[in-house]
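To assess whether ligand presence alters the predicted conformation, the chain was also submitted together with F0G. Input:
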Amino acid sequence: MTPKQPFSLHYTGLIDKYRERLPIAPGVPAVSLGEGGTPLVKLHNLIQFLALEIDLYVKYEGANPTGSFKDRGMTVAVTQAVDEGSRAIICASTGNTSAAAAAYAARAGLTAFVIIPEGNIALGKLAQAMMHGAKVIQIKGNFDQGMALVKSLADAAPVTLVNSVNPFRLQGQKTIAFEVVEALGRAPDYHCLPVGNAGNITAHWIGYCEAAGVPGERTTAACAYCKGQCRFVSDRLTEKRPVLLGYQAEGAAPFLSNAFVDNPETVATAIRIGRPQSWESAWTASRESGGWFTGVSDEQILHAQKMLAEKEGIFCEPASAASIAGLLVDLEQGRLIPGSTVVCTVTGHGLKDPDTAISSSAKPMTVAAEEGAVKAIILDNIG
Ligand code: F0G
């Protein structure tokens, strides 16, 4: 038998790590899959390849247990739901929320009902929800219609709504800011992220406000958004807060037109959203941080996704690549101060959407099972 360790290095998820900064009481057992603690990777190759005059990192949320940042929110929302005696959870989703809800419900022994737009979620995400035993309900409509449905259902049926309108979701997702600050020793100058339903940009701002010990307009106890769930502890982790840059796909960009979009369209199905639920708080976060929103085309998204995969070994889904694509547009237009430290949240793993990845990549080469045939290819491609 190995001798008992004086301390344990076993990471058991973000509630155990940040409990004093979260609205989960001591002693309430966390429903966790070990989420959080994701890599902050410096993009040495891209910096060099594109001759960027910034220090650029990605926070790779694809490394979470179900492959997206949603796990941060779901551990807190499901822990709270169990503590309140709930037996079932429900969400509308473009895919990742449903995958996370399904997994955390399985872990907690709850039933998950997930509402998804038929034909418009990536295959991997559908597989996850099905595999974890969620009750998958496809609607002949889009995410925004699904959202309207689950909001009324949560009042009419004994189920806990776990979309990001549930304030416990954002409380979990705010922890990304703590991790970035811990890794860099301070907040970055800019933090870039894709925006869909706009919960995550709100959560980033809540986290940075708390880390800096500064209540944001929306993060005070009186705030209708966090519903009094924010926690301010005495130790400040950083002096300043970053500028938040939000990126949207051009075909689904209500923050660019400052108006809801009825028929959003983009290859980045995760952010195919026209009526963001966190509309007000996202505007507040953006304005208060001194940030802005920028649109990117599907082509720019796919190009950034490919570049990150080929130059850095980081495979993310299309929506996630919007943060890199948008940053490159803003850099091109000279909107960032040279020499800045920039972090992009890369929200989800590329394996979730194999169809898009395959259709935007070179096809495999098929040859006879002979050494000569394979050798010819090696010699042709060795560069
Ligand atoms: N990136 C990915 C991979 C997402 O799945 C989402 C949202 C976002 C970015 C945008 O984050 O909504 O907080 O602004 N996906 C949700 C879902 C809508 O149902 O999985 P947001």
